[in-house]
Design brief:
Radius of gyration: 26 Å
Largest sheet: none
Low-confidence stretches: 126-134, 373-379
Mean pLDDT: 82
Number of helices: 16
Distance between the termini: 36 Å
Shape: flat
Number of strands: 0
Structural class: mainly alpha
Order of helices and strands: HHHHHHHHHHHHHHHH
Keywords: Coiled coil
Number of domains: 3
Strand content: under 5%
Length: 383
């Protein structure tokens, strides 16, 4: 068997950076939470459901048919009994509650059935654009590298190609997570929002109590000396925690133009890949009749071919995205930084570290300036 080192190296690199999705569409987490709450009377978290799924996968491996699903109480009895009480205790530890044997079996059956439903749903409703937008397979890796090299009229080095894919995956992986039909990311955000709201309310109460106590101590004219500096430092730390939680809660907004909005994530992926192409030497021609290789870069990354349905509409959408990118890089507050980054790239065309840092600077310094709630991309070809 041929081992393809470069795609594997890229996948590991992106995983270590926390960029690539770490979970498959194994279950609809919204449905699972609803079903488990109805059966057991309390809320299960995404992390708890994931650990239970891993347990079920172990049961499947015991059947030596990992692609099949556990069916019926008899099969479940056989394998839960063979694994002993340790696994039941592990599940109880995961959910932090005691379960009777019937409850334990019902929990496994419920999750297993929902996994089966989700698998069937994915097989019947997979979006072609979802499949095209995120990839790291050997064939797709080689094909994309070849097409981009043809655009640049030279063979892109492994390092240059990996800069391309890192810029792309940085946003597209999160966009896929946010739009996946398993609702995993959505439920994780809901859990975090709920915990942040609780923390904000609790911290506000602490700060209010701190203020009352501080004022009461200060109001006692002949009260023995107290070192209020340490106390006031605690007040300051609580205020910092409150500010942090409020900012994080605001960042979780997924409405138009916000950081975690799917359309905005995709727009930023397009901008990042266009900038990356420019840092590696690609540019738009002076005359339109020669075509625009930067637009072709977007088509390559989206894996769009000439037989695509609605090809003309897709081309129009990509052209609109490109024009928006041009306006962005020429806007006040962006132009000077953009030109400085491009100059640095031109001065160091063979330095992989410099090119990588320049593209990261573009993502961290300039792309956040696109986060305006009034902006929306309604004609996103990756929808």
């Amino acid at each position: 068997m041929t081992i393809h080192i470069e795609p594997l190296e890229l996948s590991l690199r992106l995983m270590f950076q926390g960029i690539l999705p770490k979970q498959d569409n194994r279950i609809n987490y919204s449905e699972a939470k609803f079903a488990l709450k109805k059966q057991f009377g309390y809320d299960f978290t995404v992390s708890q459901i994931d650990l239970i799924i891993n347990f079920i996968l172990i049961l499947r491996l015991k059947t030596q048919e990992p692609e099949t699903y556990l069916e019926g109480d008899e099969q479940l009895d056989t394998y839960t009994t063979s694994l002993g009480d340790d696994f039941k205790q592990q599940i109880e530890s995961i959910i932090q509650r005691k379960l009777t044997t019937p409850q334990f079996k019902q929990l496994i059956i419920t999750i297993n059935d929902l996994m089966y439903i989700q698998n069937d749903r994915i097989n019947n409703t997979a979006s072609p654009y979802e499949q095209k937008s995120i990839y790291c397979s050997n064939d797709q890796y080689a094909a994309t590298q070849s097409e981009l090299s043809a655009l640049f009229k030279r063979v892109l080095t492994k390092q240059e190609f990996h800069i391309f894919l890192e810029s792309w995956f940085y946003y597209m992986s999160l966009a896929q997570d946010a739009s996946d039909i398993d609702n995993r990311y959505k439920e994780q955000l809901n859990e975090l929002k709920a915990d942040l709201a609780i923390a904000i309310n609790s911290t506000k109460k602490k700060i209010s109590a701190y203020n009352r106590i501080s004022n009461q101590i200060k109001s006692l004219e002949r009260f023995p000396h107290h070192d209020l500096k340490t106390y006031e430092y605690s007040q300051h730390e609580e205020q910092k925690q409150l500010t942090f939680c409020e900012k994080e809660l605001a960042r979780l907004n997924q409405s138009n133009g916000h950081e975690l909005n799917v359309h905005k994530l995709r727009e930023q992926a397009y901008f990042a890949i266009l900038f990356c192409a420019e840092t590696l030497g690609l540019s738009a021609p002076n005359q339109r009749k020669y075509g625009n290789p930067l637009l072709t870069v977007l088509k390559v990354m989206l894996n769009i071919n000439e037989e695509e349905k609605d090809l003309e509409n897709i081309k129009i959408c990509l052209s609109q995205i490109y024009q928006k990118y041009v306006r962005f890089k020429k806007s006040d507050g962006v132009r000077d930084v953009y030109e400085d980054l491009i100059c640095k790239a031109r001065a160091n065309p063979d330095c992989y570290v410099t090119l990588s840092n320049i593209n990261r600077d573009f993502r961290s310094l300039l792309l956040p300036l696109t986060l305006q709630p009034k902006i929306s991309i309604n004609s996103d070809p990756a929808l």
